[in-house]
Design goal:
It is built from four helices and no strands. It is mainly α and 111 residues long.
């Protein structure tokens, strides 16, 4: 006996509107989550702009990637991302530049 595959006969527009309605309905604690994300992104952007970090535009995006429903899950996600990033950086070949192109070494001429 084969199970029937459920099909959705609604059009994409109707499905998408239902999806948005379900995703954007308010729930308790949503304001706290939004405030935490906004504060984290703002602090990240202030640090990136203050210290002029190259490629720093990705920093505030991590506030959106890492954030979860509660603070414990957010911290767990941030720790996992940090460990993965450290492992990635630590596993690159020694002696090579980060771009994979060996930089030309020139003697410094001091006058």
């Amino acid at each position: 006996m084969r199970a029937a595959i459920p099909t959705d006969t609604r059009g994409f527009t109707a499905w998408f509107l239902d999806f948005l309605k379900n995703e954007l309905t308010p729930y308790s604690g949503r304001g706290t989550v939004v405030a935490r994300i906004v504060i984290a992104a703002a602090i990240s952007m202030i640090l990136v702009m203050t210290f002029r970090i190259p490629g720093g535009a990705l920093g505030p995006l991590y506030a959106f990637i890492v954030s979860r429903e509660n603070l414990v899950s957010t911290i767990r996600s941030a720790v996992g991302l940090s460990i993965g990033l450290a492992g990635t950086i630590g596993s690159r070949e020694p002696g090579r530049s980060h771009s994979g192109i060996c930089p030309v070494r020139r003697k410094a001429t001091w006058s």
